Each structure stands twice: as C-alpha cells, then as structure tokens.
C-alpha cells in the first residue's frame, strides 16, 4: 500500500496540496525506504513545496540540475557509491554550504554518528522511524534559519534586509526561541566564543545594547518567525 501511494504521489506531487497550494521551491528527498520517503513528501507538500523524491543517490545526482533546492532530506545509509554523507557533500559543493540538509538514519544513531553528521555540515539529524510531527517541526526550523519570514519558512530572509548574515540570522532566531549562548553553540556546533562574537555583531547592526532589545526589535520588524513570539515575550520579561 505504501509503495502504491508513493507512486501516485510521484505522478501528481501536488495532490496533497491542492488547497492553498503555492509553489515555493523544491525539497530534495533521497531515502531508500518507502515509508520514510512518503512521510517526507507529505511534509514538503503540506508546507507548499515541490517534493523531488528518489530512492538512490545515483538517481538524485543524475537528476540534479542548476535550480537551487530550498532543503534536502537525505538518508545516511544509502547504498551504492555515495552514502548520505557524500550526497550532502556534493549538494553543498553544487550549491553552497548554506543549503540545509537534514540527515535521517535507522542504524547510525548514536551520539558519535549524530555529532559527526552535524560537524560535516548537516543542519539536523533525525532517527528512524520518522515521526511526521517532529519532521515537520525540524523542516520548518531549518527553512526558517535560512529564510525567516512566514510560518512555513517561505520567502526572502528579512535578516538579510537588516544587514545580518545568514549565520547572524540563525543566532537571532535562536535567541528569540529563548536559547542561551551555550545552547546556541551546541545547536550550531560552534564555540561559545564564536556565538558571543556573532551576538555582538547582531546587536551592533540592530542598534541595540542587549539581547532582549535585539529580540524585541527582531519581532517588531519581522526578522524572526511569528511562531517564536512566546519565547520572545519570555525573554523580554527577564532583565539582563
């Protein structure tokens, strides 16, 4: 039944998104497991994106054109000449390392494997079986980091309009979510000192003196997703 549903979805990728469909870009999905691919396709279509699913790395790379995808969901244990880590490397080489890649794995799921995947450039790392609600939240978060605008993560980065770099925009969003400097460093796999430097750049570019003020400005100017409002209000209530 899954395979049949999946084939129908490939023939008509927008079937699940007829209501309110907006073509907002492409999400690449490469996973050898039908159930995982189907879950990923459903999430992509639900968010208004064109899903491009393939079961093998070779098929994905053969079909890879010059049009930049907005995100890729890649299985680590792909068979063939290229595993998921190699696919991620080639995607970053083809488009740049700002392209969010979410790695998914059934067997390579211990802390060492996840840390290695993140250090090699993954935006996130999920274990199978995939939970649809969690995958939806992770995809939206990854999209929001590179293009924070509306609730689905669509559109041009407002952080760029404020003069923020992509990394500074990520950190501002995490601050608005209530993360500490140490938590941000762990999330982005960078040093706490580097996070502090980025935060100082954010404060300077926004013309404020504290992190709470930065979050307030970001929320008023639409520099972060409306979904983080509760975190922003909580942060503003805490004196620095």
Key phrases:
2 domains, alpha/beta, 240 residues, globular
What does the secondary structure layout of this molecule look like, with pairings?
Elements: H1 2-11, E1 26-30, H2 34-46, E2 50-54, H3 57-63, E3 71-75, H4 84-95, E4 101-105, H5 111-119, E5 124-127, H6 132-146, H7 158-161, H8 166-176, H9 181-188, H10 192-206, H11 211-220, H12 229-236
Helix pairs in contact: 1-2, 2-6, 8-10, 8-11, 9-10, 10-11, 11-12
CATH fold name of the largest domain: Rossmann fold
Query: Helix-strand pattern, N to C?
Result: HEHEHEHEHEHHHHHHH
CATH class of the largest domain: Alpha Beta
Overall number of strands? 5
Mean pLDDT figure: 79
CATH superfamily of the largest domain: Response regulator
Cα gyration radius (Å)? 18 Å
CATH architecture of the largest domain: 3-Layer(aba) Sandwich
- What is the spatial order of strands in the main beta sheet? 2-1-3-4-5
Distance between the termini: 56 Å
Low-confidence stretches: 1-23, 148-158, 230-240
Beta-strand fraction estimate: 5-15%
């Amino acid at each position: 039944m899954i395979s049949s549903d999946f084939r129908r979805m490939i023939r008509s990728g927008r079937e699940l998104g007829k209501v309110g469909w907006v073509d907002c870009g492409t999400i690449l999905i490469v996973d050898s497991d039908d159930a995982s691919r189907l879950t990923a396709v459903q999430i992509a279509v639900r968010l208004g994106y064109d899903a491009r699913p393939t079961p093998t790395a070779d098929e994905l790379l053969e079909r890879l054109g010059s049009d930049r995808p907005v995100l890729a969901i890649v299985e680590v244990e792909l068979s063939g000449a290229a595993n998921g880590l190699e696919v991620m490397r080639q995607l970053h080489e083809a488009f740049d390392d700002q392209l969010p890649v979410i790695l998914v794995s059934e067997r390579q799921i211990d802390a060492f494997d996840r840390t290695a995947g993140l250090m090699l450039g993954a935006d996130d790392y999920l274990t199978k079986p995939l939970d649809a609600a969690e995958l939806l939240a992770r995809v939206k978060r990854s999209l929001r980091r590179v293009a924070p605008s509306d609730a689905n993560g669509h559109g041009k980065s407002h952080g760029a309009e404020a003069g923020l770099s992509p990394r500074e925009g990520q950190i501002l969003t995490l601050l608005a979510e209530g993360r500490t400097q140490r938590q941000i460093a762990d999330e982005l796999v960078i040093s706490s000192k580097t996070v502090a430097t980025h935060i100082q750049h954010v404060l300077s570019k926004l013309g404020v003196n504290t992190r709470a003020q930065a979050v307030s400005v970001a929320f008023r100017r639409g520099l972060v997703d409306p979904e983080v409002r509760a975190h922003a209000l909580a942060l503003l209530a805490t004196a620095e």
